[in-house]
Design brief:
Blueprint (H helix, E strand, L loop, with lengths): L20 E15 L2 E14 L26 E2 L6 E10 L14 H7 L2 E10 L3 E2 L21 E2 L3 H5 L2 E5 L5 E4 L27 E2 L14 E2 L3 E13 L5 E9 L31 E9 L1
Antiparallel strand pairs: 1-2, 2-3, 2-4, 4-5, 5-12, 6-11, 7-10, 8-9, 12-13, 13-14
């Protein structure tokens, strides 16, 4: 039997259900049951999620995601978009040991009791690795453009470790924030030379290039971490016993109490003039709120 290319097909799609994902993790947890007014819980997770299917924008089970190269499906293998390497979380509640039944102000007057009885504090703390991101060229150097080249990575002249050392938060004059050290970005704002090169000769030392015809990028998909995520929420509550059956509760809460911004690694395409810029945050600004509840 002789096999030959169909001259009437400009391009063909192979539809099948063969994606994979793996998840491995180690978990350590410390917990204190409620005792003397204090409850405490903390855990740390070290994990890795690998897949060959993008879980970013427009990715679900009804959309078609083509391989960059059907003969090399391993090119798609990388970290999942939700892979978080390190995650530490803790929370506690604490009933303040003052007022009726406690050593401090154990028998307060009615007026003093309204001030010192029924105080409780609580907190939730989160610190974890930043979300994965890629350094892309999206250059149709091997396959057709559009979705087939959307995940084609760039050619890097530095190693993974060297690039990782130049990631972070870099605030420039005018308030522009970069997630990649601007020294690795070309003077025109992109990550590439000003004109095409037959070999990878970046415009700046340690910079990036587009793959040449027939090539794909040498960087792994979602190989790098964005800025670490940090959030700390606090609350305080005070119960007022109005009568035996009527209680008034005042509560104040602070979300992201330190007002710490966590920047989102925005444009990852080296051919964009906004390459490496962070124009939004994954965190919300500090929120303070108060509430008053009547319970009966």
């Amino acid at each position: 039997m002789t096999l030959f290319a169909n001259p009437f097909i400009m391009g063909g799609d192979l539809l099948k259900n063969s994606s994979f994902s793996t998840y491995n993790a180690g978990v350590v947890e410390v917990r204190r049951r409620l005792n003397r007014g204090l409850y405490f819980q903390a855990n740390y997770v070290y994990s890795k999620v690998l897949t060959d299917y993008s879980t970013g924008t427009n990715a679900d089970q009804v959309r078609f995601q083509p391989y960059l190269d059907n003969a090399r499906p391993g090119l798609e293998k990388g970290r999942a978009a939700f892979d978080i390497t390190h995650a530490f979380k803790a929370n506690f509640t604490y009933d303040a040991p003052i007022g009726t039944g406690h050593k401090l102000f154990s028998t307060p007057s009615k007026t003093l009791g309204l001030l010192v009885n029924g105080w409780q504090t609580a907190s939730v703390f989160t610190w974890q690795s930043g979300s994965p991101f890629s350094i892309l060229s999206q250059w149709p150097s091997f396959n057709r453009g559009g979705s087939r080249s959307a995940r084609d990575t760039a050619i890097a002249t530095l190693s993974h470790g060297q690039i990782s050392n130049d990631l972070g938060v870099f605030v420039q004059p005018g308030g522009i924030v970069y997630g990649i050290n601007p020294k690795l970005i070309s003077p025109d704002g992109t990550g590439i030379p000003s004109q095409a090169q037959l070999s990878c000769t970046p415009a700046v030392t340690g910079g990036f290039c587009n793959p040449q015809p027939g090539q794909v990028g040498n960087l792994q998909l979602d190989a790098f971490n964005g800025p670490a995520y940090f959030d700390w929420d606090l609350s305080a509550r005070k119960d007022f016993a109005v009568t035996e059956k009527l209680k008034l509760t005042f509560r104040t809460e602070a979300f992201n109490v330190l007002n710490h911004p966590v920047f989102f690694m925005g444009d990852q395409n080296i051919n964009s003039q906004q390459f490496g810029q962070s124009t939004s945050t994954v965190s919300q600004a500090r929120i303070l709120q108060m509430s008053l509840q009547l319970k009966f």
